[in-house]
Amino acid sequence: MLQNLATKVDPTDRSAQLIVHSGLGGGTSLSMQRRVHDSRFVRRYFVGYGLDVGGGQDCLALFVELFPLIRNVINYDAPQGDAQTLANVDDDSFDFLFSSHCLEHMRDPAEALSNWIRVVRPGGHLVVAVPDEDLYEQGMWPSTFNADHKSTFTICKKQSWSPVSVNLFDLIGQFSHLVKTLSINTIDHAYRYNLPARFDQTGTPLTESAIEFILKKL
Fold first, then answer.
1. CATH number of the domain enclosing 94
2. 3 falls within a domain
3. Residue 153, strand partner residues
4. In what order do the strands lie in the sheet with 94-100?
5. For residues 126 and 184, is the Cβ–Cβ distance under 8 A?
6. How many alpha carbons lie under 13 Å from residue 144 in its C-beta half-sphere?
7. Which residue in 146, 151, 141 sits closest to 171, CA to CA?
8. Which of 9, 113, 159, 168 lies 20 to 30 A from 81 at CA?
9. Domain count of the chain?
10. Could you tell me which residues come within 8 angstroms of residue 199 by beta carbon, excluding any fewer than 6 positions away?
11. How far is CA 112 from CA 52, 58, 102, in A?
């Protein structure tokens, strides 16, 4: 969906033309293998009007039939505005926010997450996935698999090899007055830890190399 940046994002807008692309999908497509078997996504998290931040061609809107309580999902990517600020999205305007592998592209992850929380109504959920720095970057920085990555992420380490590492305990802790943390999980579905050479395992049909955190806005 293409919008004028001066136009406020309307959660009920259904004008987007969805295109299914052939070949391997991205993080959202890979995650569908597990999400559709988890009743929390079907009955609690993906409910009502949603905003998919950074969805691009691999957006949640392509899978809405699998989550019958979704009323609509707006795919918010570069044509719609800056995901860092969501300047054209009103406060408390969406029932849920989903973002798969976008936060690592933001200039300031804390500022971005603050705005992502802002646009979700109280009682709504945020489902955010980021690359796990060890599973995805595999000890190398700058990233050899995605040159646009600006941060790496870990759940909790005393010390990281990455000069731009973000500790999710510290990041999310900044917003404990605004959200309740429901889960922070390493998502290593089908990850092969014993391969002799490093390569991007998310380029295979099965493997996730991520951390997922789920927040409920207070």
1. 3.40.50.150
2. no
3. 132, 166
4. 70-76, 48-53, 94-100, 120-131, 210-217, 179-187
5. no
6. 11
7. 151
8. 168
9. 1
10. none
11. 14, 20, 10
Q: Can you tell me the distance from the alpha carbon of 135 to that of 32, in angstroms, rounded to the nearest whole number?
A: 19
| Domain assignment of residue 198, yes or no | yes
pLDDT at res. 24 = 62
Question: What pLDDT does 25 receive?
Answer: 73
Helical ranges in 66-197 per DSSP H = 109-118, 168-173
Instruction: Give the contacts of 48 (CB within 8 A, at least 6 positions apart).
Output: 69, 70, 71, 94, 95, 96, 124
Q: Name the residue among 32, 27, 25 with its Cα closest to residue 132.
A: 27
Print the domain residue range for 184.
Answer: 27-217
pTM of the model: 0.94
- The 3-state DSSP class for residue 3 equals coil
Q: Tell me how far CA of residue 7 lies from CA of 33, 88, 199, 211, in angstroms.
A: 35, 7, 42, 33
Q: Compute how many other C-beta atoms are within 10 angstroms of the C-beta atom of residue 20.
A: 7
The DSSP output letter for 39 is H
Exposed (0-12), middle (13-18) or buried (19+): which is 15, by Cβ within 10 Å? exposed
**Mean pLDDT, consecutive 10-residue segments, the chain of 218 residues?**
61 87 81 94 98 95 96 95 96 98 98 98 98 97 96 96 98 98 96 93 92 98
Q: Is 92 part of a structural domain of the chain? A: yes
Answer whether residue 19 is part of any domain: no
